[in-house]
Amino acid sequence: MTDSTVTLPWLVFRQDDNGNRYRVG
Questions:
Q1: Contact 13, 1 (CB under 8 A)
Q2: CB under 8 Å to 24, separation ≥6 — which residues?
Q3: Do the Cβ atoms of 14 and 1 come closer than 8 Å?
Q4: Rounded-to-integer distance, Cα 2 and Cα 18, Å
Q5: Backbone angles phi, psi at 14, to 5 degrees
Q6: pTM summary value
Q7: Of the candidates 14, 23, 25, which has an alpha carbon nearest to the alpha carbon of residue 2?
Q8: How far apart are CA 25 and CA 15, in angstroms?
Q9: Dihedral of alpha carbons 8, 12, 15, 20, sign
């Protein structure tokens, strides 16, 4: 994961090992 992930709503978006973002609810 990268630090850029924290700029997104963590409870709504997750980032996988490939760097792809996806909704988790």
A1: no
A2: 11, 12, 13, 14
A3: no
A4: 11
A5: -120, 160
A6: 0.21
A7: 14
A8: 13
A9: negative
Q: What is the mean pLDDT of the chain?
A: 64
Q: What does the alpha-carbon distance between residue 10 and residue 20 come to, in Å, rounded to a whole number?
A: 14
Q: What is the DSSP string of 1-25?
A: --GGGGGS-TTTEEE-TTS-EEE--
Distance CA 7, CA 1 (A): 12
- The amino acid sitting at 22 is Y
- Tokens matching residue 17: 């090992």
Q: What is the pLDDT of residue 1?
A: 57
